[in-house]
């Protein structure tokens, strides 16, 4: 009985280490067939059989040699509250955009007012009341754009101070 158990144990551990031979062929309909018994291959197709040795275990593949160790992962720089560059840029971008738009609008307004007053003076049809109305309209719009510029500059200054206090990289605000 002891011999039988030893034999059975040996078979259980040795058989999985053996590889299998697989026979492959293509029949007349173009179907690929596989079998592990050569006798099951029809005689008509035995001349084209491809024999493949399959192993039950994979051979370890050594890692590719490397001349240098991989670089350490780059840790994103953060302020003392854990906020990174993306967070600061997201805060600053809308205010920079508002500042740019307000400056463009103010420049456009100045050019339009200059052109309009020059045209009115050339035609000589400028009445004091009309000139005053154009000037008032210009001053109202100018005040609106200047207020937008002031607000944007104040917010950008506030964000700059906050960045300094939280020890953020000030380049993130550019």
Task: Please give a structural write-up.
With 174 residues, the protein is mainly α. The chain has 3 helices and 3 strands.
Short description:
With 174 residues, this protein is mainly α. Helix content is 52%, strand content 9%. The protein has helices at residues 2-14, 85-123, 128-165; strands spanning 20-26, 32-35, 50-54.
Query: Strands of the largest sheet, in order across it?
Result: 2-1-3
Number of helices, counting only DSSP H or I runs of 4 residues or more: 3
Q: Mean of the pLDDT scores?
A: 81
Biggest pleated sheet: 3 strands, antiparallel
Distance between the termini: 85 Å
Kindly provide the radius of gyration, computed on alpha-carbon positions and rounded to a whole number of angstroms.
Answer: 42 Å
**Percent in strands:** 5-15%
Give the topology string: H per helix, E per strand. HEEEHH
Structural class: mainly alpha
Uncertain residue ranges: none
Helix content: 40-55%
Tally of extended strands?
A: 3
Shape: elongated
What's the layout of helices and strands?
Layout lengths: L1 H13 L5 E7 L5 E4 L14 E5 L30 H39 L4 H38 L9
Helix pairs in contact: 2-3
